[in-house]
Give the backbone structure.
Amino acid sequence: MLVFIVRRLLLAVLVLVTVSAISFTLLQVAGDLAQSIAGDSATVADVEAARRAHGLHRPFIVRYVDWLGSALRGDLGLSFFSREPVVKLIVDGVPITATLGFWAIVVAVAIAVPLGILAALRPNSWIDRLALTLAVIGQAMPSFWLALQMIILFGLMLRWLPISGSGTWQHLVMPVMVLALNAVPGIMRLTRAGMIEVLASDYIRTARAKGLSRWTIVRRHAVRNAIIPVISLAAVQLGFLLGGSIIVEAVFALHGVGHLAWISISRSDFPVVQGIVLMFSLIYVFLTLAADLLNAAIDPRIRLT
Amino acid sequence: MTTDTHSSELPKRRARAWQAALKHPGLLFGGLVLVGMLAMGLLAPLIAPFDPYAQDITKRLIDPVWHPGGGWLHPLGTDHLGRDYLSRMIYGVRISLIIGFTTMLISGLIGSSLGLAAGYFGGRVDRAVMFLVTTRLSMPVILIALSAVALIKGSLTVVIAILGLLLWDRFAVVVRAATQQMRSQDYVTAAECLGCSKAYIIAGEILPNVMPQIIVVATLEMAHAILLEAALSFLGLGVQPPTPSWGLMIAEGRGEMLFSPWITAIPGLALLLLVLAINLVGDGLRDVTAQEQRH
Amino acid sequence: MTALLEIDGLEVSFPVAQGILRAVRGISLTVDRGETLGVVGESGCGKSLTALAIMGLLPPRANVVTRRFTFDGEDLANADEARMSELRGDRMVMIFQEPMTALNPTLTIGRQLTEVLQRHRNASAKEARARALDLLSRVGISEPAARLAQYPHQLSGGLRQRVMIAMALMCAPKLIVADEPTTALDVTIQAQILNLLCELKAETGTSLVFISHDLGVVSRIADRIVVMYAGEVVETGTRANVLGNPRHPYTRALLECLPRPRSGDRGGHLGAIPGLVPSLVGPVAGCAFRTRCTFATPECAVANLNLVGTKAHASLCRRADELWGALPRG
């Protein structure tokens, strides 16, 4: 088990370094950062000044290693725009994004898993068809559009909820719902498929042969086996939710990390963007590791590898 | 059970597959909608009543035909610059379809090649490809796409290139798994014994049998690309105005949302319908090919 | 003494693409208290479905009809699922063929054992654990306490099957239905499990229905034998009668298939039955075995067949008397 964890950690570190290298490269070669910072109306001298000021004249490798070294010490540099430490900017935005992400995944699982189980228990019933229809429509829905329609309906027409900003829990209802509804289809389908497969297995037949009640069979025997792939998916979905938070925070004007990413990109504030990419990757890698560990805890067969 | 393509059985299997396809409600509905949208895109110059770029400030924000102020001249009304909305909607499908297809082709090519190589050669090649996949999955797509597009300045070509280079992961994973499964099949071993070149085996024996799964993933990634482009354009970093991208049209209509809600509602519904159709086709194809494999 | 289990006229059918598949076409069985009934037949003859029908474990799309079904003095012909689930695991139990997949991989052995007693006897965790330990030793598993905490994948196939047997015995059932319990095991383990079943049966007086395609295995432990073919019982009787004086061409053919060393028989052929089982979709006229039978006549295609004989020996073959002599009546 220990070997397993150590190997996964090493892999995670390698992945993080690669991701940061890729995004660093991307952001460097995609255009002249000094030009972007200086602006469209800058003279050549202005651009050169900007280049010197931000250390952009140094060779590429030097800049990357420099950045990596600082990052390992917890220093992600200063924002080009506000000269504040990137770490501080990100940390300021974390509470909102974390709250959104957390509640979104909780709501998504609370809706999707029971729905998937019910749909699997009664295949081709009305609840099964409803669940599948919801899944299929949910997967096709552009989240930013859903956000706007919800704003129109709940914010402007019915006036139940505030349409932007943060502060009270009411401000979070619509953003959380939009994010959650993004994750529901995938989780629901996987739960349903997993349950259907598990319910057809031999050990469920044995459980029935023992005279156990339907409820006990589902609760104690079936769900445990069906949930294994769902956990991995939920972890991955949480990672995607963070990506989706960029759109949601932009539409609802919530000042979380996603919003920070959005405005930093529009301002070519490269250190902030690079820092956020690293943070997202870190979270994603951590989530997959956590999912693997959770799986190993539930499925004793996995612990051997 | 394998879906080996033995040439003598192909015509019968194709006929059976068509029959099964036509009976599948999702596949039928999705297929019809998709064909309809394709037709709309191809025939856009012929069926659009107006030029989608023609502005006329005197005709701003005319209501659509189902509102009291509207009429049949502009069935879907006009936007804030007086452009006929129906025409913009019709031309808009081109953007979505072009992005969907080309991105799907690029990412499909990249991902399938990686998957075939990983599945067939195994060992170090496999580990390398899986590392690439893990790295790619650890990168937040929207963030990278946004950043890249922001720096190169958004346009149709840029969006296609970026998305094509980012959305290959599912292709790689699925093709790798399928190739691994087929790798150990007898007919592959036989071909190897006969001294067939690796290229022939991969392209001639394995690829045709992996094709159904590639097609299913292709539809899903096409839908994915369309939604991503819409999101990018919505955020102002995708296709640029005045091009009629549905995502862009939603962004442009945001200001008028309260009094002219149809301006954001209609393109969104169109996106929903198109992506829904593509997903239904993908799911339907998966169902039909799974059934075929059981026979 | 009344029989423990009586089934009369059991029919099981399924809707399939081409029509209705009649997998079990009117069979009757009796199992006395304390006896071992061997059910023999090739794959697809309906023996497993019969077992599942007895236990009430058939899927909902299966259409089950029976004239009579009594178990331990109770009429179960119209019993609902609630009643059946009370009986299952308690008074009638089933052991399946594949020990590798029949146990839940994510629950400990102990949990899967104790839950049976807790369900049917409202036992406490301690009581259930004590009984589980007792049974694990009785089925010959060493270090039972350690095993309780283990997971199925940590045990070999033979051990898992012993666990399945222990699980079946938790509530001291009156009837054990074993569907090919040794088929998936190595030959040496097979013998061990068979001996175990015999010992346990002798100790507890439980009745055993032992289903197998292997006549050799069945002949070692059965008191009475039922031979099935294409969804019907073709011959039934005591072991001595059925094996010593078979009165159905199918039974005779099965016996021919058993490799047995006979003096002066070197280089002889292994028996085989040519042909295939007929399709059971739609009605089957006459005798289902006639296409592979060396004794078939044109009448066999249209005859309405009935099991003729006594409990000690009966046959479905309409030519039985003619071919092998009439049985003494009474």
Summary: Residues 214 and 222 of chain A are 10 Å apart (CA to CA). The first helix of chain A runs from residue 2 to 29. The radius of gyration of chain A is 24 Å.
